[in-house]
């Protein structure tokens, strides 16, 4: 491949643990547009062309083992070590199968960007980061597993991984990583844009318009985890159905009932309200919005059924859906109040956009909160060459991060994560 274009693979498994996403992209610099800046670092705007995208569902036993890793604090080093290797092997096979299915030669690939599988992400502040003695009860840390050495050895290709740790080491949240993609690829010519991902966890990036008259527009970019995405809704369905149901498909159960349970909604606010009120930048995960809390919350109801028409089941699903929409709109209020944003549109990606009732609830709540129509688009509906398959976005992100690493360019945004400075994210496993 020529020096100005790289074939990059992005591979990822998200917090919902639905599938391994593999995206293969051609990436080069756009020499016809003006570069942008992060701090004093110049970044040419990339051009990305998706060559192939596949989403390979996790086998049920592997999915169960990954969730067990996320939830348990009593697993052995042996189990962690084995799963690190197994996830790496599964990632390698997913990449190989994607290449075979799309007639792409492995030797044509320049680099792989692998996020791995997040197992734990705890980045609250502690005394050590403030230059005082280390409070060992709160160690800021993040862990993604899926051994890059396994991927590199099997495919004989270089792998960039470990994208979050340098930002965390510099006092940042290590998330959301999507902010660099949104900042470089998805800014609107004249208005602010809220780019919302609804995976297991929800996160948003507010990016300024292209016509804003500042050199370092990244300093105005805001990105953080809004709270639950699909996690609470999915877990409430799994808990009540005893695992027979995995989700409220299309939000049909929530839609079938007239209103949420206000008492249950208030309990959700009591448990999670502190996070929603916390100033950004901030990040969270299943450590907070996980199944254990959902089980405790639902235990008094003594509700166990897989009947989608059960009235109480539907009311609970509606309540968790309403709360998820509320958490997103609450986040937007915080940003708009702080940055004095009057006009913005919303771009939604992630599995949550398939929940049509969640989207309807979000739209209604946005319009009533901001007292004007707020347009919501999918990535597929964007114009000016920005349209993309929203299901492929996270894979595209890790292909982009690998590209930026190879080009020796910074890829975190300090105003977003809270890191002390911009750095090149990732570490490289070289192949021979």
Pick out its properties.
432 residues; alpha/beta; Nucleotidyltransferase, domain 5; 2 domains; 5-stranded mixed sheet; 13 helices; 21% strand; globular
Beta fraction = 15-25%
User: Within the CATH hierarchy, at the fold level, what is the topology of the largest domain?
Assistant: Nucleotidyltransferase, domain 5
> Helix count?
13
Could you tell me the radius of gyration in angstroms? Answer: 21 Å
The overall pLDDT average reads 91
Q: Total strand count, please?
A: 14
Q: What order do the helices and strands follow?
A: EEEEEHHEEHEHHEEEHHHHHEHEHHE
Uncertain segments are: 126-134
Binned, the helix content reads: 25-40%
GO biological process, one term: amino sugar metabolic process
GO molecular function, one term: ATP binding
Describe, in plain words, how this protein is organized in 3D.
One of its GO terms (molecular function) is ATP binding. InterPro entries: Anhydro_N_Ac-Mur_kinase, ATPase_NBD. The chain has 432 residues and is α/β, with parallel strands linked by helices. The protein has two domains: 217 residues, 2-Layer Sandwich (Nucleotidyltransferase, domain 5), CATH 3.30.420.40; 190 residues, Nucleotidyltransferase, domain 5, CATH 3.30.420.40. The chain has 13 helices and 14 strands. The strands form three sheets. Strands 1, 2, 5, 6, 7, 8 and 14 form a seven-stranded mixed beta sheet that branches. It has a five-stranded mixed beta sheet with strand order 11-10-9-12-13, with helices on both faces. Strand 3 and strand 4 form a beta hairpin. The longest helix has 29 residues. The radius of gyration is 21 Å and the shape is globular. The chain starts with a strand and ends with a strand. About 2% of the residues have low confidence.
